[in-house]
Amino acid sequence: MIGFLKKYRAIPFGFILLFFIIEGLKYVDFIRIDSEEILVNVLGFIFWGLVISIIVHAAFFHRKERIFYWMIASWTISLIGFMLGRLMDYRVLGISCMFLLFISSFYILWSWYLQKYKNKNTITLLKERKSILIKMIILAIIFIVMLIIDDYMRVPDNPITFSLLTLFWLGVFYILAPRFFQKYRLLIIGLYGGGLVLFYLVIAFLGTRTHSENLDLFIMFLFPIPLFIILWLYDQWKWFQNLKADKAKAELALLKQQVNPHFFFNTLNNLYGLAKRKSDDAPDLILKLSDIMRYVIYKGKESEVKLEEEIEYLENYIELQQIRHHEKVEITFNKDIQESDILIPPLLFIILLENAFKHGVDSLVKGAYVNINLEVSNRQIMFEVSNNYDKSAQSDSKGIGLENLKKRLEIIYNNAFTLDFDIQKETYNVRLTINI
């Protein structure tokens, strides 16, 4: 509970601060609240309360830094100065302090975002990228000119003020989210440009308006904001999904690189044994090994291969083992393929077959067998390997082969596969089932 309160303490601080700000602005006659507009008042209080809470949260992020006190001081001075400017009817003071309040809020949010999510310091960044500082100065000039024009002209619904205000917020949007702005610039400019045109038409032909009509006109400029937030969230979600996909591809590539040396290491050991005995089977073994290497090197890097190619690869591997073991092992490979043009990841079955020889056949002096079954029907692949083994010759250490296979299956097929093991006294059976 205490941890929860610490994490979200900015929210009560933000709403309490908003309450005092509202009372102060009412006191200096800057805002007037219609008691009959209950829903509008509640929604407005919640909206601005959350906005101020975010600013407070961003400020608390810097609480251990010296700049934290400058943030608090600038906010306090700008609020008090604005209210004093209203009380004394000193427009320059009021406008300057309102601008200082905005700049302080913007800097607090920007500094929090850069340090928390980009691991960058704002002062250092501004020194490195002077163009951002220039854009901020231009926005500051637009904001000050807008306030001065609105205050001195005292024209209701001043078109110049609304035009500058729209330009100002577009500029803020461009600085805060430049990539998002560039991507959706036509939509953003079109919505706000259309809003300005509609605003000019309303003030030109409607004449006097009620408070409710004024409120509707104001909401019109706020309406695109939820749309932009939804678009931004969608972009972040899409970026996150692409990031996960890229991570999965990189992990798959790494696992494949680990599978290939694992197989070649064992095969070269076999070849070394034959060469040492000066066996006549060594040339055939080398030739068969070259076929296997060709498949692993060229097909192994692809994301998918035809099932027929994978079967041919397994058959080459089986022939290689038969050359090595002569009459020592009995191997059967039964295939029941009822569907054609099936695509699977390369090197998917070899680990299960290789383990049957490594932990089964190699542990026995005679009477070894390996039975392989491959069935494809109803969009399902079943690959099963059964072999006998000498239990006394087994070690407790686990190789990387099965672990890599499990990781690959999880990445590629998620929950659409099962990998079952049935270990008896002298028989080892493994079955892989994949729904495709």
From TrEMBL:
Gene3D superfamilies reported in the protein's UniProt record: Histidine kinase-like ATPase, C-terminal domain
Signal transduction histidine kinase internal region domain sequence ranges: 250-328
Domain of life: Bacteria
Keywords: Membrane, Transmembrane, Transmembrane helix
GO molecular function: phosphorelay sensor kinase activity
Segments passing through the bilayer: 12-32, 38-60, 67-84, 90-110, 131-148, 160-177, 184-205, 217-234
InterPro entries hit by this protein: Bact_2-comp_sensor_kinase (IPR050640), HATPase_C_sf (IPR036890), Sig_transdc_His_kin_internal (IPR010559)
Pfam name, any one: His_kinase
SUPFAM superfamilies: ATPase domain of HSP90 chaperone/DNA topoisomerase II/histidine kinase
A Gene Ontology term for the protein's cellular component: membrane
Name of the featured protein: Signal transduction histidine kinase internal region domain-containing protein
The species this protein was found in: Aquimarina algiphila
